[in-house]
Each structure stands twice: as structure tokens, then as C-alpha cells.
Amino acid sequence: MYSLDQPTVLIDDFKVILCESVYEPSDDTYLLYDTIKNLSLRMSRVAEIGSGTGLLTLALARHNIILATDLNLKAVKCTLKNLKINGLYTNADLICCDSLKPVRENELFDYIIFNPPYIPTDTQEDIAWSGGVGGIEVTEKFLLDSAKRLKKHGKILCVISSNMDLKKLFKFIEKLGFKTAFLSSKKFFFEELHIAILERKSLYNH
Ligand SMILES: C[S@@+](CC[C@H](N)C(=O)[O-])C[C@H]1O[C@@H](n2cnc3c(N)ncnc32)[C@H](O)[C@@H]1O
User: Fold this and answer.
1) Would the CB of 135 count as within 6 Å of ligand 1?
2) Entry pTM
3) Which residue puts its alpha carbon closest to atom 4 of ligand 1?
């Protein structure tokens, strides 16, 4: 199923194969991974947009049913390999697609998570990290699609970086009808990362 010469790392008790041309777990991945572990989600219907190597999908597939998507076919295959070698493939569906586009309209999720490409770029240089102008173009698309696929009390969990145009992003989120809180934050040499949780504002208007 996988050759021994593929680089593999152990993350907690997950064996994770790293795949060529696929985003490797990094600081942003680990911050979201730790936050997900602390949330201890159980029996939820979850979607991950942009699963990459698949670490976050693995963490969620243990106790939930998850749909993982990625626009990079190599990433989808990598996530699949990692689900299989960790015995978690029965809890996951994988689609190579843009965001959640092919998901049927009445398929709704309790949680939608993503670690989006968020580096500000004028052109799309690499879908793994190019976030477009202000670093928020892809994130805005993921948010818009997620808002359509969330249950009434559903929540979005995503990575936000201080390198993004945060003023514009928070305006967009506000207009979309969501409120944001940070579950965790960590400073790095060149940026500060946050894990944001978004919920519908309408739930609090009573
Ligand atoms: C920053 S990486 C995160 C990967 C992984 N979730 C992690 O945290 O390590 C962003 C991922 O989003 C994927 N991606 C970019 N644009 C996408 C789109 N429009 N639809 C689905 N996936 C996309 C990339 O291929 C990449 O795997």
C-alpha cells in the first residue's frame, strides 16, 4: 500500500506519510490540530476543506464522520493513504474538488474546518499557500461555501494569520452573519496565528 522509502512521521499515535507536492503539516496545522484535540468532538458530521497530508482529517475521523476535500489530487491521495494506514478509512469520504462545490445542497455539517492558503499573493503561485490579494481571497470563498453547508448551530473552525488583511476579512465575516472568537493563538517569528471559531450571529439575537 505504501513503500517504506516514503518519509513518515509519528504525530501522537498517528503514522503520517508525507507526500510529494502536498502541503506538509506545519505550525498552522499543529495549532489547529491541538485545538481540535482539546474540543474532543464526538459523533459529529464534519467537513475539512483542503485536507493536504490529512493530519486534521485523521484526528477527526477517529470519533466523527468526515468529508475531506482538496483541489490537489495528490493531496486527496495522500489523505486517503494516511486514513488507510491508520485504520480510519471507514469514517471518511474524500473528494478532489474546489472547496465544497459538489456537495449536495441538503448535506449539512456540525463543523467545517480549514487551514486555508493565506499568504498574500497577487497571482496564484501555489494552491497550497497562495491566499490571493490580502491573503483572504481563498478564505472568503471557503467561508461563503461553508456558510451554505452548516447546520443551524454549526461552527466553522479555521486558521487566521496576522499576515492577512484582517480588517477586510472581519468585515466579510460580519456581513456573512457570523461572529468570531479565538480559541487559541500563538506568536511565531514572522506572524501570529489564531484558531477562529465562527457561529451564526442570529443564534444570539434573542
Ligand atoms: C495550507 S494547506 C493546509 C493543508 C492541511 N489541511 C494542513 O493543515 O496541513 C491548504 C490546502 O488547501 C488546498 N486547497 C487550496 N485551494 C483549494 C480549493 N479551492 N478547494 C479545496 N482545497 C484547496 C491545498 O491544495 C492545500 O492542501
Assistant:
1) no
2) 0.96
3) 52
